[in-house]
Amino acid sequence: MTHEARFRRQLTSFALIAPLALFLAFFFVVPLANMMSSAVSDPVASEALPNTASAFKGWDGASVPSAEVQKMFVRDLRAINDPELFGDLVRRLNSAKSGFRTLMSKTRSAAEADENLADLVAVDERWAEPAFWIAVRDASRSAITDRNLLAAVDLMRDPQGNITSVPEGISANRDILVRTLFTSAIVTICCVLLGLPFAMVAASVTGWRRQLLLAAVLLPLWTSLLVRTAAWYILLQDNGLINSALEFLRITDGPVSLIFNRVGVVIAMTHVLLPFMVLPIFSVLISVPRNLMPAAASLGAPPIRAFWLVLMPLSMRGVVSGSLLVFMSALGYYITPALIGGAKDQMISGVIAYYATGAANWGMAGALGLVLLLATITLYVVYLRLSSEEARA
User: Fold this and answer.
1) What are 94-151's pLDDT values in tens digits?
2) Which pTM value belongs to this model?
3) Burial level of 299, CB count in 10 A (0-12/13-18/19+)?
4) Which of 98, 251, 254, 273 has the most other CB atoms within 10 Å of its CB?
5) What are the counts of helices (DSSP H) followed by strands (DSSP E) for the chain?
C-alpha cells in the first residue's frame, strides 16, 4: 500500500469517527471542563473589587481596616454599574458570612450618596466586626480558590489559612454524601439479592420462557424514569395498591409507611436499577456449561454446596459488573429521592440541583459534582484493577 493510499484510508477513518468525537467533545468534555473550572474559580469578587484587593495588603485581620481600605471599597462599590455583577458579589459574600445581603445594599446606598465615605462603621455597626472584612478580603484575593471544594466536604479555612471543620449546623454536605453512599449500597445489595436468582432462572430456561423473563426486565427500561417514579408514588401511598393488598391479606392491620422515607426510596430505586444487575449476570451465566451442576451432583455435592462452590464463583464477574453499574448509577439519582423520599432522604444530587437552580451558586454545584465524579472514577478504577487481576489469574 502506497503512502498516499494509506493517508487516504486514515483520512476516511477519521471522517467516520469525527461526528462521535465532536459529540463527546461538546456534550461531555466541555461541560465537564466547565464544571471543574467553576469548582475552583471565584472571579466575581476580584472582578468587582479590584482596588479593595490590593488595599488589603498589610492588614492584620484582627481589627477594622484602615480608612484607605474602606475608601477603596467604597470606590469599587460606586464603580459597579452591572446589577447582575453586584448581585453575584452579594451572593458570594453572603455564602461566606451571613448578613451581607442587607449590609451590602445599605452600604452601597451610603457609598452612592457620599463618594468620600471612609467610615463604614458609622453606616452599619457590622463593619466593626473583622469577620465581615475577612470575608471581603478572602473573596477578592484571587480568582482561583479551594473554598468550594473544602465546603463540599464541610471544611473551611480559618483566618490563619488552616483547614478546619465548619461549625456544627452550618452545612451538612458530608452527612448527605455519606447518606448517598449508604443508600446506594443498600440499593445495590437489594439488586443483587433480587437480580442473581432472577438471572439464574432466566439462564436456566429456554424459548418463550426466557424471552418472557427478559422482557419483564427490559420493559421498565423503555419507560420514562419520571413515569416509573410517579407510579411508585401512587403504589406506595397509605391507600395505595400495596397497602391495600397487605390489609386485604390480613398481613397488616393498617397502612405501612412506605413513602416519604428511606424504605420507599430503596424500593423505587431498586426497581429502576434492577435491569442493570440482571443483564450482566445473565450474560455471564448463559456462557456457563449446563453440565457443571449435574456433574457436581454426580460427585455427591448437595445442591446448595454445588451452588456455592461451582455456580456462584462463575457468576461473580457478572455480579461485580452489575454492582458497579447499579452503585454508580444510584450515586447520581435525583428524581426518585425527591419524589419518594422525605427531607432526610435527599441525596447529593438534590443538593447539587439546589445550588445550581435555587441558590445560583455554580461554584458549589461544580464542587459537589466534582466530588461525586471522583467517587465514581475511584470505583471504576477499583473495578478495572480487580478485573485485570482476575484476568491474570
Assistant:
1) 877 888 888 898 888 888 888 788 888 888 898 988 888 888 888 887 777 787 888 8
2) 0.78
3) exposed
4) 273
5) 21, 2
